[in-house]
Amino acid sequence: MAATLRRIAAHDRAAWDTLWDGYCAFYRSPLETRISDLTFARLCDGADMLGFVAEEDGVLVGFAHILFHASTWSEHGYCYLEDMYVAPERRGSGIARALIERVYAEADARGAERVYWHTQEYNAPARSLYDTLARRTSFVVYRR
Q1: Which residues, 6 or more positions from 94, have their beta carbon under 8 angstroms from its beta carbon?
Q2: Can you tell me which residues the record assigns to a coiled coil (predicted)?
Q3: What is the pTM of this model?
Q4: Which of 20, 74, 101, 141 is the most buried (most CB within 10 A)?
Q5: What H or E segment, with its residue span, contains residue 28?
Q6: Number of domains comprising the chain
Q7: Helix H segments across the chain?
Q8: Is 78 inside a domain boundary?
Q9: What is the pLDDT of residues 69-105, one digit of tens each?
Q10: Residue 81 belongs to domain spanning
Q11: Please, is 74 exposed, middle or buried when counting C-beta atoms within 10 Å of its C-beta (0-12, 13-18, 19+)?
Q12: Which of 45, 46, 59, 35 is nearest to 106 (CA)?
């Protein structure tokens, strides 16, 4: 069965928590509960961030979180795909591709000039998908 993609809603919290915990564990980045609470509230609010979920038979199996921002390089804004996750048992089923295509559609509808994201170098399975959907750049990420 193909997953249904839709905007995240308040009633998704418990199922989102399960996926979010898996995502944070995968990236070895545990978060305080208050940060997860704030993130979920922002995703539902839709002002700063948007969340999409993939659902199969009433069960959430994936998500994508995006935000839009202005750019000094363009009169149109950019769309940043900050988080994307698919439940391990559903990987390879086309859900990640569908989520990215949904993000592209939202970015196009809002006139964003660019959609971009980054991932860990060790995330080879995801990178092999991303290589079919976007162009890898030569930028290196620095953090303080």
Answers
A1: 2, 3
A2: none
A3: 0.93
A4: 20
A5: none
A6: 1
A7: 13-26, 33-45, 95-109, 124-133
A8: yes
A9: 999 999 999 999 999 999 999 999 999 999 999 999 9
A10: 4-133
A11: exposed
A12: 46
